[in-house]
Request: fold
Amino acid sequence: MLKYRCLVLDHDDTVVQSEKTIGYPFFRDIIHRFRPGTDITLEEYLTGCHELGFANMCRQTYQFTEDELLEEFLGWKAYVRTHIPEVFPGIDRIIRRQKEESGLLCVVSHSGEENISRDYHVHFGIQPDAIYGWDLPEEKRKPSTYALEDIMEKFHVSQEDILVVDDMKLAWDMASNAGVKTAFAAWGKLDFPALCSEMESLCDYTFRTTQDLEAFLFNP
Reply:
C-alpha cells in the first residue's frame, strides 16, 4: 500500500541536476548582459531563489523590468531546449515505483512544462499525471496553493494523500498553506548548510539521499 497516493515533485535540483549546470550559468550570462559590471555567485543565486523566488529576486535585487523578465524567460526557454540535465541517481526508482503501484505523480515547479515533459520522456519514458510550471500565470505558480488545490479537485485526493518533495522554501510555503506535508529533498543542497538547516526546521521530513526517500515511501 502506498504511503502517499500522490507525490508532488519539484523538478530543478530535486529530480534533475540543473541549477548548477543550467539555471545558474544562464542567469549569470543574463546578469552580465542586462547589468554590465554586476556578477552573481552560485550561493547568491540559490539564496535569492530560496528566499524570494526567481521573479522577485530579479525584480528586487536586480531591478528587472517586466520586459527584461520576459526576455530572460524566452532566452531561457531557448537555452534549455539544447541543454538536458542529468537526473539525481536513484530518483528514477522513486518515480517508477510510484507509478507502478498506481500512485499519482505530479510536478509543481518553476521550470517550464515543455522541458519538464522532455526530461521525463528522455530519462524515464513516462509522463507525470499533471505539470504545473512557469507557464502558469504568476499568481498561480509556487508559492500559490493553486496547484495543490487543483490536484485535490482533479484527482479526488485529500491533503493527507499528498506529499510535496522539494528543495526550496517556496514549496513549504505552498504546502503549509494548503495543509499538506513537505519533504525536504536535501541531496542537491548539501553544500549549503544554512539553507539545509532552515529547510530541516520547516519541513515535516528531511531526506539527504534519494535512497532514504525511497525507503520512507515504499518500505513497510
Q: What stands out?
A: The chain has ten helices and six strands. The mean pLDDT is 95.
